[in-house]
Each structure stands twice: as structure tokens, then as C-alpha cells.
Write a structure and sequence with these properties.
three-stranded antiparallel sheet, globular, binds s-citryldethia Coenzyme A
Length: 430
């Protein structure tokens, strides 16, 4: 980060010189951290549309160009050439691993995939129809009750163990949440399977017969995990950073991230997008829904469309669409009416002035639900799969925050619009 220039902020009574910091690429920032101390005024940005909350070197997004880089590597190249575990190593360590580093990391993750045997009782405390995200929030938070030896956030070795435990155990927890919801027995992780194959095996195998995981589906699952791994300071990553800034243990912080991701405006959009496509049902009903999305008096929005940062096509959505065709072909599905609806909806929206003017494009959630449904997952599992993949991003952001020497507890201020001071009045005088 470099600081060469300064900005002048004209205020009610005087001008203030504020430093401007520049990064490697992307917008520079006006540093307002000293503004309140010198002017007695706050800045105001409720949706953080113009606010950088931290310095980071993990992920860079150029929303205008539709560019997504992880440690400088384009998401398209990682999706094409890398694996999810290699991408995890990259996000955590800043560089792609060499052969020995990759092997050590993969072995470490493999050795941490089992849960403490007593944790299965948490699942049995839920109703069978509990949403998997409710289970994920509860069980991930409960990890802090079982893994005390990796909760000291000031010990780099404990942070490393906790990070690896979270990446390794989150698939097991997600698979157990799915098995519990359908009344089938939990399936233990298998050390002879790769990360994605192991997850699919834990979800779809049963004790009664051997299950062979399709390499094509495993590759598609692995690619979907890569596409969801991290995304700069999105709402759930910002939640994890804020929780971590208080010194909370890593498991509690990730549970907070899962809770935030659950919202339909964020990670819950993949579940909402498929439900929307199912509700539309056929191509001839698309215009009705396009009109509803444009109607200010109708709260309906095209789920899986639009993005706070991308004002161009989300590069992940392009890869997701291509993966969709690969999975359908692998499963011998030549005609998927929901995919037809999705592609026609995209075509119409991208040619409609409303969407063009507001720069609304398909995002990562628009096609993912079609693939996941085709692979056999219920819509209620879609956001849990997003959380599974995003855990590495949250962990990387959390580590980066703790290792930043300038890190302090996050404590925003406010514009107060309530009552000025007033005296208490006894009830017989109200
Ligand atoms: C994710 O931040 C991340 O990086 C998130 C994520 C990640 O990897 O972590 O990329 C994952 O969360 C993707 C987004 C998934 N959400 C959805 O698909 C839900 C549908 N999309 C929207 O709700 C909305 O686009 C958001 C929440 C994604 C972005 O909201 P913003 O940036 O606050 O934009 P906005 O709501 O202010 O919308 C700007 C305008 C508004 O119209 P005006 O009030 O200016 O007239 O665009 C309209 C909105 O009404 N608009 C839409 C729309 N999205 C925005 N109109 C119809 N359909 C939509 N989907």
C-alpha cells in the first residue's frame, strides 16, 4: 500500500487533508480513520457501497470488467486447471503449492475429516425437517466445545490447526445434515477418495451397497467448490472479520459467517433462484416475471441476478453455465425444461433496457441450483454447499485480519435520529 496524495474534505467549518492510499490494482482509498478525531464528524455509508473495511491481498474483483482473481490468478484458470484443495492452499498461503506442499496439505485435510463421535448427538437434537443451514450454524459453532486445543487465536499454530479442521470437517457436517434430513445413516469420510468424491460419497452412498462416484460429477462438484471459495469482502466474509475482531474463536466466527450467508440476498439466492425458475415453470411465463421484477410495487426480484460489485457478467456464472451442460450430458439428460427457462430468462433479461441500464447480470447463484438439483441435492442443501466451499474464504480472510498488526475491534458509529435527552415520567403522568 502506498500513500502519495491527500484529499481535501470541505466540511461545515474547514477543510481537512485526508491521506489517499493506493493498492496494487483497483480503486485507491481516502483514509478517514482520523476524521472524527479532527472534525467531530462521521462518514455515512450504510450499505458500505463506497467503504473499504480493510487491506487485503486474497481476492480482487473488477466489477465493471467482470474480473475475479484469487491471489492474482483468474477464476476461469483456477476452475479449469486447479482443484479445490489446491485453491484452498493458494487462498490460505498466497502461492500455489509445489508437489510436496500440495501432498502435505491434502494429507492434513484428509486426516481431519472425521468429527468427534459425540457430535452426532447435536444432529439428533434437530427435527428431521430442520433446514440444513440451521444445523450447520449450530454444529459449526459447537466445534468450539470440542476442539479447545485450537481456539487460541494468538497462536499461529493453533490458527493453522483450526483452519485445517474447518476446511476438512465442513463437508462431513454438510453431508451429515443432508443424511439426517432424509433419515439415512451418516456415512464416514473415506481417506482413499479425493475431497469432492469423498463429499459425494458421504452424501449419496448407503451401507447396503458399494457406491462408485462418477469422476465427471466429482470434477463438477470440485469446480463448483472452487467457484464459491472466496469473494473479497462480501457480507458473510465481513461478518466473519467483524466477529473475529472481538477475539472470538474461529469456530464461532465461521458459524456467524454461515448465519449471514443464509440470507436470500446472499448465499440463499441459489435456493431462491431454483425455486423461482420452478415457479416460472415454462418459457412462455417469463415475460410475466420479467415485468414483475421491473415493477417497483412488486417486491419480486430475479433471484440469481444482479450484484453489488459486478456490473458485468459474473465470471463464475459463465463457468457455472458451462458446467451445467457438462453435468446434464454426463447424466444423459438432453432436455431440462428448467435449464431452458433459465437460458431464455437470461437471454430476455440481457436484452431488456431495465436490466441493461441497471447493469443486472446473472451471478454465481443463477445456474448453480440447476446443477446441484441434477446431481441429486434438494434445494435446501444448496446454501449449505455454498457455505462448505466458502469456509476456506472466510478462514483466509479471518487469518489475514488477525495477522494484520493494525487490526482493532470493528466498531462502527451511527447517525443518531432518535430523541434528545428527556426526563423519565411516572406512569400516572403518561
Ligand atoms: C451473492 O457480495 C458478494 O460478493 C456476494 C456473492 C459472493 O460470492 O459472496 O457474490 C454471492 O450473494 C450473489 C448475489 C445473490 N443474490 C441474488 O441473486 C438476489 C437478487 N439480487 C439482488 O437482491 C441484488 O442484486 C443484490 C442484493 C445482489 C445487490 O443489491 P444492491 O447492490 O444493494 O443493489 P440494489 O438492491 O440497490 O439494486 C439496484 C437496483 C434497484 O433498483 P432501483 O431501486 O435503483 O430502481 O437494481 C434493482 C433494484 O431494485 N435490482 C433488481 C435486482 N437486483 C437489483 N431488480 C430486479 N431483480 C434483481 N435481481
Amino acid at each position: 500500500m502506498s500513500t502519495e496524495k491527500s484529499a481535501k474534505l470541505g466540511s461545515l467549518d474547514k477543510e481537512y487533508d485526508l491521506p489517499i492510499h493506493s493498492g496494487t490494482v483497483g480503486p485507491s482509498v481516502v483514509d478517514v480513520s482520523a476524521l472524527y478525531g479532527t472534525s467531530g464528524q462521521f462518514t455515512y455509508d450504510p450499505g458500505f457501497t463506497s467503504t473499504a473495511s480493510c487491506k487485503s491481498s486474497i481476492t480482487y474483483i473488477d466489477g465493471e470488467q467482470g474480473i475475479l482473481l484469487h491471489r492474482g490468478y483468474p477464476i476461469e484458470q483456477l476452475a479449469e486447471h486447479s482443484t479445490f484443495l489446491e485453491t484452498c492452499y493458494l487462498l490460505l498461503n498466497g502461492e500455489l503449492p509445489n508437489t510436496d506442499e500440495a501432498q502435505e496439505f491434502e494429507n492434513a485435510i484428509t486426516q481431519h475429516t472425521m468429527l468427534h463421535e459425540q457430535m452426532d448427538r447435536f444432529f439428533h437434537g434437530f427435527r428431521r425437517d430442520a433446514h440444513p443451514m440451521a444445523i450447520m450454524v449450530g454444529v459449526v459453532g459447537a466445534l468450539s466445545a470440542f476442539y479447545h486445543d485450537s481456539t487460541d487465536i494468538n497462536d499461529p499454530e493453533q490458527r493453522k490447526i483450526a483452519s485445517r479442521r474447518l476446511i476438512a470437517k465442513i463437508p462431513t457436517i454438510a453431508a451429515m445434515a443432508y443424511k439426517y434430513s432424509i433419515g439415512q445413516p451418516f456415512v464416514y469420510p473415506r481417506n482413499d477418495l479425493d475431497f469432492a468424491s469423498n463429499f459425494l460419497h458421504m452424501c449419496f452412498s448407503v451401507p447396503c451397497e458399494e457406491m462408485k462416484v462418477s469422476p465427471t460429477l466429482a470434477r463438477a462438484m470440485d469446480k463448483i467448490f472452487i467457484l464459491h471459495a472466496d469473494h473479497e469482502q462480501n457480507a458473510s466474509a465481513a461478518t466473519v472479520r467483524l466477529a473475529g475482531s472481538s477475539g472470538a474463536n474461529p469456530f464461532a466466527c465461521m458459524a456467524a459467517g454461515i448465519a449471514c450467508l443464509w440470507g436470500p440476498a446472499h448465499g440463499g439466492a441459489n435456493e431462491a433462484a431454483l425455486e423461482m425458475l420452478n415457479e416460472i415453470g415454462s418459457v412462455d411465463r417469463i415475460p410475466e416475471y420479467i415485468n414483475r421484477a421491473k415493477d417497483k410495487n412488486d417486491e419480486f426480484r430475479l433471484m440469481g441476478f444482479g450484484h453489488r460489485v459486478y456490473k458485468n457478467y459474473d465470471p463464475r456464472a459463465r463457468v457455472m453455465q458451462a458446467t451445467c451442460h457438462e453435468v446434464l450430458k454426463e447424466l444423459g439428460i438432453t432436455d431440462d425444461p428448467i435449464l431452458d427457462v433459465a437460458m431464455e430468462l437470461e437471454r430476455i433479461a440481457l436484452n431488456d433496457d431495465y436490466f441493461v441500464e441497471k447493469k443486472l447480470y446473472p451471478n454465481v447463484d443463477f445456474y448453480s441450483g440447476i446443477i446441484l438439483k441434477t446431481m441429486g441435492f434438494p434445494t435446501s442443501m444448496f446454501t449449505a454447499l455454498f457455505a462448505l466451499a466458502r469456509t476456506v474464504g472466510w478462514v483466509a480472510q479471518w487469518n489475514e485480519m488477525i495477522e494484520d498488526p493494525s487490526q482493532r475491534i470493528g466498531r462502527p458509529r451511527q447517525l443518531y435520529i432518535g430523541h434528545p435527552a428527556r426526563d423519565y415520567t411516572p406512569i400516572n403522568k403518561r
